[in-house]
Amino acid sequence: MINRVTNGDQTAFELLFRFYYPGLVTFVSKIILDKDEAEEIVQDFFVKLWTGRNNINRSETLNS
C-alpha cells in the first residue's frame, strides 16, 4: 500500500486515510483534549503525508 501511495495512487491514499483517520483522531484527542483540534492536526498530517509522499521510507511500517 505504501508503495502505491509513494507512486501517487490517490485511491491507495484515500484507503489509508479512511482506515487510519478515526484511530489517529482518538489518539490525538486523548493527548490534547480537544476533538476539533485533533481532527485538524490529523488532517494536516495527511496533507503533509500526501505532499511529501516521495520522501516516505518504504521500509517502515504504516503503524510507526
Q: How would you briefly describe this protein structure?
A:
With 64 residues, the protein is mostly helical. 70% of the residues lie in helices and 0% in strands. It starts with a helix and ends in a 13-residue tail after the last helix.
Describe this structure in words.
The chain is mainly alpha-helical and 64 residues long. It is built from three helices and no strands. Helix 2 (10-32) runs antiparallel to helix 3 (35-51). The model has no long low-confidence stretch (mean pLDDT 91).
Task: Give the topology, please.
Blueprint: H1 2-6, H2 10-32, H3 35-51
Helix pairs in contact: 2-3
Name the features.
64 residues, mainly alpha, 3 helices, elongated
Mean of residue pLDDT values: 91
- Helices and strands, in N-to-C order? HHH
Beta percentage is: under 5%
Uncertain stretches = none
Q: Can you give the helix content as a percent range?
A: over 70%
What shape does the CA trace take?
A: elongated
N→C terminal distance: 14 Å
Radius of gyration: 12 Å
Task: Tell me the number of helical segments per DSSP (H or I, 4 or more residues long).
Answer: 3
Structural category is mainly alpha
Q: Main sheet? A: none
Total strand segments: 0
